[in-house]
Automatic annotation (TrEMBL):
This is Probable nicotinate-nucleotide adenylyltransferase. Residues 7-167 form the Cytidyltransferase-like domain. The lineage of its organism: Bacteria, Pseudomonadati, Pseudomonadota, Gammaproteobacteria, Candidatus Competibacteraceae. SUPFAM superfamilies: Nucleotidylyl transferase (SSF52374). The gene is nadD. InterPro entries: Cyt_trans-like, NadD/NMNAT, Rossmann-like_a/b/a_fold. It comes from Plasticicumulans lactativorans.
Amino acid sequence: MRPPIGLFGGTFDPVHHAHLRLAVEVREALGLAELRLLPCHVPALRAAPGASAAQRLAMLECAVRGEPGLVVDGRELRRTGPSYTVDTLAEVRAEVGPEVPLVWLLGLDALAGLPRWERWRELTDYAHLAVLGRPGAELPDDPALAAFIAAHAASPALLTERPAGGLWFQPATRLEIAATQIRAALAAGRSARYWLPDSVLDYIVRAGLYGSARPHAPH
């Protein structure tokens, strides 16, 4: 079986070190051939991003430049309407074929809200789900979600046996950085340095994103 491919979706508004540290750790831990970062076009369950699709794509490309195994995948930005994960997974599966293991990364908050996702029970038809959190973490009292987790409970060892169908809790460092605090700092004229790569911060200031247009340089 070919090495697995990881998929990590989000608004990335902007991408920061918490996203990137997770990506590097999980790629190494699971032996992924590559980990694709997929910025979504229109989030189905949250507010629209502050930066445009082209700007968020450009920031991601700045962030991963030179990092082996991290790849930017802009497919969701080329679609109109909400970005449904199940559609993305079906599309990637059709491209890579039936044998390559696919792993979709999601946080505990996303797992808790999974029953609100479009055709959520079909996700494991196309990929494994790696939940970035600890086993036994508190989740909502939702019988449908509990049954889904129990039915698909597995471990990363499944990556050498099956291309899809498993769900496990994947340990990873969670840095306490949020895109909301970065945007707020920039809008208030405060420094956002060390929360995100210098290359991304340079781009933000040059583009005047998040209210950051001002005469001083970022560093």
